[in-house]
Amino acid sequence: MTERTRIRRIPEKAVTEVAALHRVLDAAKVAHVAFVHDGAPVNIPVATARDGSRLLLHGSTGSRLFRTLASGVGVCVTVTLLDGMVLARSAFESSMHYRSAMVFGIPGEVSEVADKLVALEAMTEAWMPGRWATLRAPLAKELAATMVLELVLDEWSVKISDGDPDDPPEDLDEPVWAGVLPITTSYGVPVPAPDLRGGPPVPPYLVDWTS
After folding, report:
1. What is the DSSP string of 35-102?
2. Which of 57, 64, 173 is nearest to 119 (CA)?
3. For residues 53 and 163, what is the distance between their CA atoms, to the nearest angstrom?
4. Residue 211: predicted pLDDT
5. Whole-number mean pLDDT of the chain?
6. pLDDT band, residue 72 (cuts 50/70/90)
7. Residues 89-146: pLDDT tens digits?
8. In Å, how far are 27, 45, 94, 96 from 180, measured between CA atoms?
9. 0.85 cut: is pTM over it?
10. Which domain range does residue 52 map to?
């Protein structure tokens, strides 16, 4: 823990196990990357995936802001997962269930073709498990158009809120329902592309995703 990763607001929600960080990052597909550009704060959503002890960020080489990220600027990367609404007997005590992670560091570009392919496979398998081996190999022009950044998971914090409503005793007799309303995200039924040819079946790994 560093001074800037120390959780000051409700510190009892801080989680320091690296496994917890990995679980939060593995559950996310998009991170928000904050940095200073031309003297002003910028925060951009970026496709992300964890690969071991690094966080991979995926973007376009044509993006001015993504090129700035590759130039050696310091960043703060955040991920937030919303798991439920905590409904208390007052608006003040009402809250949310969430898991959040914050990572500081300086991202570096994955530039060697072999290393980039490893990173792209890791990201594809994190987002779409089982699919990489079924796809055609990336073209040279596609690799040239894609930028991959890596951020070592050295400086980070995790905060998790998963408790019940915490109403004061004087509110417990209020005639208001209190509890937790879970929020879940799930895949729907696969919809084939209108130009799908040959009638290939839905692949088994998609069945795994939706089960």
Report:
1. EEETTEEEEEEEEEEEETTEEEEEEETT-HHHHHHTTT--EEEEEEEEEEEEE-SSTTT-EEEEEEEE
2. 57
3. 29
4. 66
5. 94
6. very high
7. 999 999 999 999 999 999 999 999 999 999 999 999 999 999 999 999 999 999 999 9
8. 21, 29, 10, 9
9. yes
10. 11-165+196-210
Take residue 179 and report the two structure tokens written for it.
């509890």
Instruction: Output the CA–CA distances (angstroms, integers) from residue 184 to 27, 61, 148, 164, 197, in the order listed.
Output: 12, 34, 30, 17, 34
How many structural domains is the chain composed of? 1
Evaluate whether residue 201 is within a structural domain: yes
95 vs 207: CA distance, rounded Å: 35
- In this prediction, residue 175 carries a pLDDT of 96
Would you say residue 38 lies in a domain?
A: yes
Tell me which DSSP letter residue 153 carries: T
CATH of the domain at 141: 2.30.110.10
Nearest-angstrom CA–CA distance, 145 and 62: 7
